[in-house]
């Protein structure tokens, strides 16, 4: 189950990349509308307004497609082979799923008309009661259905992947052989998905109450809730399950619910982007949504972890410093610019529980401080790009300067804590290994793509031991027949920054964003030979 959840978390990253890109566009157009930055004449120009309107239309459409985007991403990500067939089948499944729910609602006289606020008020409901009832439903792809958000997409994607993996190689009797294999998957989907819809029709209202209650509980926890989120998110980093937590906060009522321009939206990132896309943005609503977004990451991503890299460099043996300087600088620069931290974190979290707990605590504290200081810097990254676009260039209302002040304090704290712990407990961070040859190999090996794939495959126990190869933004995610056959020392010579053995069959190898794609491509090519 842990392996499946981990794999699910990886699949949820697909739609996020689209939404983050859309958010960057919104951030740019919001700057173009800020007269204090570009002047009143430019910000009110017809061409600028037309461009802004076009961007808002595109981004608004992307937000509306989030459920089906998650469905496609989950189905193709969880499918073991012939992923394009899973992608084809899940679109059919998604539409039928909501059509059946809409049909059942209509049988009970629950329609767009009978759930409108005006209709409900006319029939004795208060304005608040009417709004709560109306917000439970929505139109998606022209179908009136429950407002299920990404949960509906994830459910349909999981069911499609299950059917696909089970039946995509199914062979039927000769008379029906035309419908065998991949053609059989959509047929099974059409037959089975209505039953999933019926179950969802009866179960969803209760599940919705539970999710909204959890979101309300987190909301009432205030700054403490943000501390717990920041702490838990960093503690989950080694397992990869932090992606699941992030997406629940970003796209579901657990991360908050708000009404923007008369529309109910859920999830911290969805609310933030909806406010940015609004012609009349509500700054307080925006500020509430950002407490779970990048403002909590900036102090340790831009300042803390780069300082930790410097501490690791200063505590490295003198003869090894030139060998690890480039690696640590690249990791620090990656964290500073993009907010990708795993290349640094995997250098210490497995060898020093003290530093791991310290880092998680500082992450939670960062979220807590940003909330208490009413900072309002959003999006889903955490690097300098986000701070610039969504903080500095938005104006002083974001209070971005407080991020910098806290970050400078974080740099000092991280440096001295890391330096003290490393020296006190002789933590074997990069450059403190007595085997200098191994360190040199870690930095220089694997420049040739063919040699890289050959070496990785050998370190994994050979072709017969490899079952499945995948990767995320910084990790090689592998399914093996037996993880005990992995040669970790040899794997490190390919540039690996760390390794996580999930269980007897699943393993993750951290390469960082610069090299992971090359490693995955080389390994796949070597396995296919």
From TrEMBL:
Active site feature: 472
Organism from which the protein derives: Fontibacillus panacisegetis
Lineage start: Bacteria, Bacillati, Bacillota, Bacilli, Bacillales
Domain PTS EIIB type-1: 450-529
Domain of life: Bacteria
Membrane-crossing residue ranges in chain numbering: 12-33, 53-73, 85-105, 144-163, 184-204, 210-231, 324-341, 347-369, 376-394, 400-422
GO MF annotations, alphabetized: kinase activity; protein-N(PI)-phosphohistidine-sugar phosphotransferase activity; protein-phosphocysteine-sugar phosphotransferase activity
Keyword Transport among record annotations: yes
Keywords assigned: Cell membrane, Kinase, Membrane, Phosphotransferase system, Sugar transport, Transferase, Transmembrane, Transmembrane helix, Transport
Topology relative to the membrane: Multi-pass membrane protein
Protein name per Swiss-Prot or TrEMBL: PTS system, D-glucosamine-specific IIC component
Main location as per UniProt: membrane
């Amino acid at each position: 189950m842990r392996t499946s959840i981990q794999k699910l978390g990886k699949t949820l990253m697909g739609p996020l990349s689209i939404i983050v890109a859309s958010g960057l566009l919104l951030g740019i157009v919001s700057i173009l509308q800020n007269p204090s930055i570009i002047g009143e004449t430019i910000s009110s120009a017809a061409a600028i307004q037309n461009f802004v309107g076009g961007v808002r239309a595109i981004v608004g459409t992307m937000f509306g497609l989030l459920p089906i985007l998650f469905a496609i991403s989950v189905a193709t990500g969880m499918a073991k082979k012939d992923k394009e067939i899973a992608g084809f089948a899940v679109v059919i499944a998604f539409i039928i799923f909501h059509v059946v729910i809409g049909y059942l609602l209509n049988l009970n006289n629950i329609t767009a008309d009978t759930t409108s606020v005006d209709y409900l008020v006319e029939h004795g409901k208060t304005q608040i009661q009417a709004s709560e009832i109306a917000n439970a439903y929505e139109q998606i792809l022209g179908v009136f259905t429950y407002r299920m958000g990404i949960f509906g997409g994830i459910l349909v994607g999981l069911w499609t992947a299950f059917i696909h993996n089970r039946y995509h190689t199914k062979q039927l009797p000769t008379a029906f052989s035309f419908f065998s294999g991949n053609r059989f998957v959509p047929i099974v989907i059409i037959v089975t998905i209505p039953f999933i819809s019926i179950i969802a029709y009866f179960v969803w209202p209760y599940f919705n109450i539970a999710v909204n209650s959890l979101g309300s509980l987190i909301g009432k926890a205030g700054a403490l809730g943000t501390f717990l989120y920041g702490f838990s998110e960093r503690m989950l980093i080694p397992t990869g399950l932090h992606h699941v937590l992030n997406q629940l906060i970003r796209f579901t009522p657990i991360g908050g619910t708000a009404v923007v321009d008369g529309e109910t939206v859920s999830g911290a990132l969805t609310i933030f982007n909806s406010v940015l896309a609004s012609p009349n943005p509500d700054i307080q609503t925006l500020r509430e949504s950002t407490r779970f977004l990048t403002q909590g990451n900036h102090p340790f991503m831009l300042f803390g972890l780069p300082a930790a890299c410097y501490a690791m460099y200063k505590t490295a043996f003198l003869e090894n410093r030139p060998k690890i300087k480039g690696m640590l600088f690249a990791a620090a620069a990656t964290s500073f610019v993009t907010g990708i931290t795993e290349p640094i974190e995997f250098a210490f979290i497995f060898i020093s529980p003290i530093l791991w707990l310290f880092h998680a605590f500082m992450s939670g504290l960062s979220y807590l401080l940003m909330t208490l200081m009413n900072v309002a810097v959003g999006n889903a990254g955490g690097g300098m790009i986000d701070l610039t676009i969504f903080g500095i260039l938005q104006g002083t209302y974001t209070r971005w300067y407080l991020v910098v002040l806290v970050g400078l304090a974080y740099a000092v704290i991280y440096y001295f804590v890391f330096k003290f712990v490393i020296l006190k407990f002789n933590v074997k961070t990069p450059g403190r290994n007595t085997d200098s040859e191994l360190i040199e190999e870690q930095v220089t090996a694997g420049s040739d793509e063919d040699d890289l794939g050959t070496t990785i495959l050998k370190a994994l126990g050979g072709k017969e031991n490899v079952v499945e190869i995948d990767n995320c933004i910084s990790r090689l995610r592998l399914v093996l027949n037996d993880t005990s056959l992995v040669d970790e020392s040899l794997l490190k010579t390919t540039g690996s920054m760390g390794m996580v053995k999930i269980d007897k069959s699943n393993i993750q190898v951290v390469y960082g964003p610069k090299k992971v794609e090359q490693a995955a491509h080389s390994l796949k090519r070597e396995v296919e030979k």
